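Quiz preparation item.
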């Protein structure tokens, strides 16, 4: 398949700076059949680690310093210069406003200097379209975004048509993993540490709450879970004067089982809703750092196969923030004949599904719609 407008493959430069990763990538192809020529991600963990979370001003300054270097490296790794690029796709929201602005200003400058068309991309659309980049997944598919900043169920009907079935009303699950690790004195990021400890733990010793399961919708809540972990920890300390290695492992295993249980139960509901559309090739896709968790992945995969659905879990480097997904989302829009102008503005809040109610909470890395 080739581009309906130009009848040829397109090459896009993608730029991402909405949170704490500065990223640039080059992607070439057509909708549903594209490949990554290069993908560069420069993280900022060391800049924020002393503060226990992302500091927006520090993030924005680092993006400004790193964007041109990342773009240069992405072009060099793809073996081309800017004149091989058909369009520039830049994250223009949602996210931390300073970082988004840094990316948008940089992209506008490149576009103004070279005349290359520019497209402002919704960061969440980048995540949600990743299964099309990695596996050529056809519409409609069900998507679960689950990370430190996102948690929502979406039906992707088209490259710009998303239906939000539900999402977290407070924290994202990655935040709960990070907080749990902090409460237990385990290293950050919390997800991998908690997963490691949970391996030698008994998931049945502590029964942590599974909120909102009594409600028929696809909304989730994780803030009560971390409070329950805090209470359990303090109770053990009050009784025994401290936590043993086994106590810690059992808390981690119980916590992880609760997150996996809630996600699986709500996925079941979302699948039931999605399958009413009678999709040709029913598919459940996941993205986000939390999807790296083996127990959670297994629980989601089991739901998926139980409903006769294919399960698509992109490689971890494409589940977490990157610019290849932004370039690909740009490619879908560019192929449809769309172009933006120098008037693109940065949008800190930008829900994918404008018709569904906004999320009440926001992730630790900033409001994500
Ligand atoms: O997608 P991501 O890299 O960044 C955003 O939040 O946008 O996700 C990072 C989150 C962190 O909260 C981290 O603790 C969590 O994903 N995470 C995990 C695992 N690996 C990373 N959570 C559970 N299990 C894991 N193995
Ligand atoms: Zn993201």
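Solution:
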């Amino acid at each position: 398949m080739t581009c309906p407008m130009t009848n040829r493959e397109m090459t896009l430069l993608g730029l991402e700076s909405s949170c704490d990763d500065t990223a640039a990538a080059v992607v070439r192809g057509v909708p549903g059949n594209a490949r990554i020529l290069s993908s560069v991600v420069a993280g900022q963990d060391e800049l924020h680690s002393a503060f226990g979370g992302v500091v927006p001003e520090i993030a924005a300054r680092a993006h400004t310093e790193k964007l041109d270097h990342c773009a240069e490296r992405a072009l060099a790794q793809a073996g081309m210069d800017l004149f091989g690029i058909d369009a520039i796709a830049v994250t223009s929201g949602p996210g931390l406003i300073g970082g988004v602005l840094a990316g948008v200003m940089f992209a506008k400058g490149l576009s103004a200097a070279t005349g290359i068309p520019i497209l402002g991309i919704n960061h969440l659309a980048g995540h949600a379209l990743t299964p099309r980049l990695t596996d050529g997944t056809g519409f409609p598919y069900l998507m679960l975004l689950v990370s430190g900043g996102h948690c929502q169920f979406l039906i992707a009907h088209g490259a710009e048509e998303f239906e939000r079935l539900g999402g977290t009303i407070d924290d994202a699950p990655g935040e709960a993993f990070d907080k749990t690790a902090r409460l237990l004195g385990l290293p950050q990021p919390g997800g991998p540490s908690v997963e490691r400890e949970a391996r030698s733990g008994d998931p049945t010793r502590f029964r942590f709450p599974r909120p909102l399961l009594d409600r028929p919708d696809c909304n989730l809540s994780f803030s009560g879970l971390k409070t329950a972990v805090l209470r359990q920890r303090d109770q053990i300390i009050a009784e025994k004067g401290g936590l043993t290695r086994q106590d810690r492992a059992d808390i981690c295993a119980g916590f992880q089982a609760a997150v996996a249980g809630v996600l699986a139960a709500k996925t079941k509901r979302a699948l039931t809703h999605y399958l009413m559309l009678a999709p040709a090739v029913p598919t459940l896709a996941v993205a986000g750092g939390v999807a790296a968790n083996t127990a959670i992945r297994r629980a989601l995969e089991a739901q998926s196969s139980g409903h006769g659905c294919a399960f698509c879990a992109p490689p971890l480097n494409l589940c977490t923030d990157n610019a290849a997904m932004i370039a690909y989302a740009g490619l879908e829009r560019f192929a449809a004949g769309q172009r933006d102008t120098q008037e693109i503005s940065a949008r800190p809040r930008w829900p994918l599904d404008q018709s569904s109610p906004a999320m009440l909470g926001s992730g630790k890395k900033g409001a994500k719609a």
